[in-house]
Amino acid sequence: MRYVKACLGALGLLVAPLPVLAQGLAQNKADTPDGGPGYAHYMAGDRAMPTPGRRAPGLLLSGGGDWDVDAFRWFVARAGHGHIVVLRASQKGELGEAFMKEIGGVASVETFVFSERRAAYDPRILATLERADGVFIAGGDQSRYVRFWQATPLSRLIDRLARDRPIGGTSAGLAIMGWWGYGAFGDDGITSPEALDNPTGPGVTVVDRFLHLPRMRRIFTDSHFMIRARMGRLIAFLANVRAKGAKDVVGLGMDERASLVVDAAGHSRLMAPAGTYGWLVQPTGRAQKAVLGEKLDYAGVKITGIGPDSRFDLNTLQVSHPAFSGVARVRAGVLTGVPAPLP
Description:
Elements: E1 3-4, E2 29-36, E3 39-45, E4 58-62, E5 67-68, H1 69-78, E6 83-88, H2 94-103, E7 108-114, H3 123-131, E8 134-137, H4 142-149, H5 153-161, E9 166-170, H6 172-175, E10 180-182, H7 192-197, E11 206-208, E12 219-222, H8 231-243, E13 250-254, E14 259-262, E15 267-271, E16 278-283, E17 298-306, E18 311-313, E19 318-320, E20 324-331, E21 334-336
Parallel strand pairs: 4-9, 6-7, 6-8, 8-9, 12-13
Antiparallel strand pairs: 1-5, 2-3, 3-7, 4-14, 10-11, 13-16, 14-15, 15-18, 16-17, 17-20, 18-19, 20-21
Helix pairs in contact: 3-5
């Protein structure tokens, strides 16, 4: 089966049990945590094994939902088939089990589940990250990541590790991988109509410079993109940050099951099932109206589809062989002109 059934939101991981891999892997302990102040810790695999290959920097930008196996195997290969650390703030150690059994080719996976900010200062977690060959940020609630990790030794360490090893994220994990992102504070995530009705209102909780990952300085990320109709809210987010002076920020929306893999030079390609895409959203200048309490007006929003035959350069923000393209606009909070993928 091509795609791993892994729910990375509040419902947890839904994976059919598979036999434990051979080749001397230690018994998976995903359901028997230890931990420390403000976190739980789960171990899967053999931490004592040497890393089989050479690790290399790269980014895995995954839109959530089912995993694309090829994309996650790309991530594992960039980690030298070695030791992965998963960071999250909800659920348990299920993703370690998924990496070991469904993706394969890893020596070990350690998962740290955060429940308090003080854990981001914990020497054990920081030392484990230092040894990791790759770091993966799971789904869940990105507001917890912001509260627990922003401006801590953990977030600064992730920035440094990105220089020579892969960093990945999915769903909420993807949402914090750009230099700009949606903080998702409040009880529920904001919808496109709500954001378009009041793009600078209190519900548009924009977070900047949480992480400083390479090639992501101008990128505002969003996940579960078209299935949750998030184009309107991403445009509203961009109107918000551009109104604050960030004139060159663009949006990158990723569909569920779609992953963008980015090499060390900033060149990327899509790994995804048919009918899912990455969406590059590039407004022209600032919005005509982005005022507190008033509906958004924004003309000239270029939208480019990143498909399996496309190549996206994060340095130049150019897409070669786009899947589709068009120019959308927002008038009085109503979005029109979004291009449709070709059948």
